[in-house]
Structures are given as C-alpha cells and as structure tokens.
Amino acid sequence: MSTSPSTPVTGGVPRPLVVRTVPCDLPAGAVPDADDLLDLLGPDAPLAWVRRGDGLVAWGEAARIEVHGADRFADAERAWRQLLEHAIVRDEVRLPGTGPIAFGSFAFDDDSPAGGVVVVPRVVVGRRDGRAWLTTLSAPGELGPLPRLRDVAPRHVPPAAPGEVTYTDGAVDAESWLDVVARGVAAIRSGEVEKVVLARDVHARTQHPLDVRWALHRLADRYRSCWTFSVDGMIGATPELLVRSERGLVTSRVLAGTIRRTGDDDADMGRAAILAHSSKDLEEHEYAVTSVARALAPFCSSSNVPDLPFVLPLPNVLHLASDVTGVLTAPQGDDAHPSSLALAAALHPTAAVCGTPTQAARALITRIEGMDRGRYAGPVGWFGADGDGEWGIALRCAEVDRDDPRRLRLFAGCGVVAASDPAAELAESRAKLDPMRHALS
Ligand SMILES: C=C(O[C@@H]1C=C(C(=O)O)C=C[C@H]1O)C(=O)O
C-alpha cells in the first residue's frame, strides 16, 4: 500500500500549465559535446539526462510530486497525468523529449523513506541528432513573447571545484562487507536464492559545498557511453538503461558480469576475452537478461533477446551487456501503451540489481545488507506527456545530502552467485565507486 497523500503534488503548481516548445540554436561551439548542454545549467538543483552530447537539461520547479511505498510509480504517474489534464501545449518541434516532460528518481525498496520524486521543471533544453529545442512550462499569467534561451538561461558561472574530499565508511565497513558477501554466498549454497546483488555505501565529505555541475561535467566527459543524470540530489553516470520507450518500441540495456580494467589496452583485451567466457559471469548475466525479458513479455507483441552478451568497455570496468528490444502490443480501443514509467515499474527490480528469484533476493538484501539503499539502484530518468521516456538504473552514483551539500553517499554493488569470492567482489565494488570518486576529484 502506498503511504502517499492522495494529492502528492506540491510547489504552487501553475494551472493550467502552459507548455511551449520552440526550436533553438545552442550557443556557438555547442556541437557535439554533452558539456554544452550541461554548460547551460545554473548551480541550483540542476536536472540532467545526457549522453554523448544529446539529451535534456532543465532547471526550475513548476511542480514536484513526492511518493512513497509500493505504489510509488503508479501514484507518480497518476499525479503527472492530473497535472497534464488541463495543460495547454504548443510544441513546434515534436521529437521525443519535447512538450511537457518531468524528471524522476525512485527508491529501490518499497519501504524506503526515500520513496520517489518527480520534478516538473520550468525550463528544458534538449538536443537530439543535431536538433535543439527549448521548452518552457509556466502559468498563463506569465505568458510573454515566444521564449528565447538567452532570456531564460541562468547567468553562466562555471562550477568551482569541491576541494579536498575525505572518504569514510558507510553503514558497513569494507572488512564487514566481506562477511555480508560470504553470507550471500552461503544463502545461495543453501538454496535460498540463485543470485543476489549486494551493495555498500561510502561517505564523502567535500571541502566546499558541492556544485553538482562540477561532478556532472566530469562524469559526462569521461563516461561517454553512460547516461549522466541529476535529479533532486541524485547524481551519477549509469551504464544501464532499465527501459526506453519510444513510439511503441522498447529497449533495455542489461548489464551483469564485470571485470576491472587494468589501464593497459592489451591486457584489457585479454580480460574482455576472459569475461566473455567466464561461466560465473555468464550465469550472473543470464539471470539478469531473463528477468528483463520475462517482465517485458506481457507488454510486447514481439521481442528480441540476444543469445550472447557483448563486452561493454567503460573506463573503469568491462561489463557483459545485452540490448533487449520489443515492440509494444498495439493499443486496443481507448487503451494506450503502458507508459515508460509503468514499464520501469514492471521491470524493477531486475536481477542485475536485486537477484533471482526476486522476492527471496529482496528479503535477503533487507536481512543482510545492513543499509537503506535510498534511491540507489532505483529507476532514474524522465518521461513526457505521451508516457514515452527513458529510465536508467541509478548506478555509479551518489546522493547529495539535502541539508549539507558537503556530504554525499556513494554506492556500489555486485552480483553474487555460488562461485563468488568476497574479496573479488569487494575489489569490484571499489572499481564501481571510481566514477563518482573521479567526479569529485
Ligand atoms: C549493482 C551495480 O552494478 C550492477 C551489477 C553488475 C555486476 O555485478 O556485474 C554489473 C552491472 C550492474 O547491473 C552497481 O554498479 O552498483
């Protein structure tokens, strides 16, 4: 049951919401770097979803939807629909991401106090395949001439470095986490679960209050094949796309099975071959792909599940990866396709971040992990008025403390199967913390 109030929308919602999207030229030199979109952001609560120079950045808050409990996704979607019911929309670009959009980030666990949040921004700038646009979301009284980027963009002040960063243990120190993993392996050997994903957190303290844009630039520059995100203090660069739904086509990038990189390209080629043939990693991967394919099946008329994964190279690790695709069943009568958020809710949590079977793995995580994951490993992304959108899994990320922007919680987890070795998993978790440590340096 959801514990959310019946109307979980706050923030002086403009009614009706007036939404206008116009084509726009990004400032000179704007193509083709992700940084250019990020350059438009001001320091206050920036919203972002960018990859290889394309994506969405946004600022301001026209409305905010806060949800809790097992129904958090459905509650968020209902509130978003209500907001849109009386919206007046003029969209001159008509691409995925134009018109009204909202950004969201949701807790991993149904019972987490973190719940979930959907932020409807006041200004959005997007770019896709060389076309850029500007969307404003405002109240009718605020309507002026057609919006122009230079009138609505915050004054450009480059982000300052966060200074020295100190790291301390999170809920479970590294030594004790070895025991957590050992207990996971024991639970697998006793037949309680087949796979479980166990995570840990690390606390960071920066010398100066963190300007989130500093971290976003560094993530987007280095982790170019990842989706760099920022939603209500949750920041990171995830390599894993839970679901993209666009005009009836769904895609999910499933990752599971990891090996650290050495920094030496020749050695890494060898490691990629080891990973591609590792029965332990292939087993881990198979669980994750099966969980995604099963969750999507009821919504799809056809789907494509690759027989074998490919190796996805990131600067810190190599992953086994599979892109699962499907065609959504044609809507009947008044029915519409399920929204991307409804699909994300159906997929969450996949075996890549929870385990197999799902309920037993969830219970095991609650019993032995020793921390609340908050919004780590939950869906993060955006969706539009037609429900299409993109939701990643919040990985390689950190949560900035709401009350003290010098404090962050960094997260990393690892899939554990019968053949897992706790020390190797600890090393893998350290490698997965690299992106955020790099982002803060
Ligand atoms: C849980 C995380 O990553 C997940 C676990 C992986 C693994 O165990 O091999 C790989 C990618 C992700 O699905 C994380 O980065 O925190």
Automatic annotation (TrEMBL):
It catalyses: chorismate = isochorismate. Coiled coil: none annotated. The lineage of its organism: Bacteria, Bacillati, Actinomycetota, Actinomycetes, Micrococcales. Residues 174-432 form the Chorismate-utilising enzyme C-terminal domain. InterPro entries: ADC_synthase, Chorismate_C, IsoChor_synthase. SUPFAM superfamilies: ADC synthase. This is isochorismate synthase. NCBIfam families: isochor_syn (TIGR00543). Its EC number is 5.4.4.2. It comes from Cellulomonas dongxiuzhuiae. One of its GO terms (molecular function) is isochorismate synthase activity. The keyword Isomerase applies. Keywords: Isomerase. Belongs to the isochorismate synthase family. It holds the Pfam family Chorismate_bind.
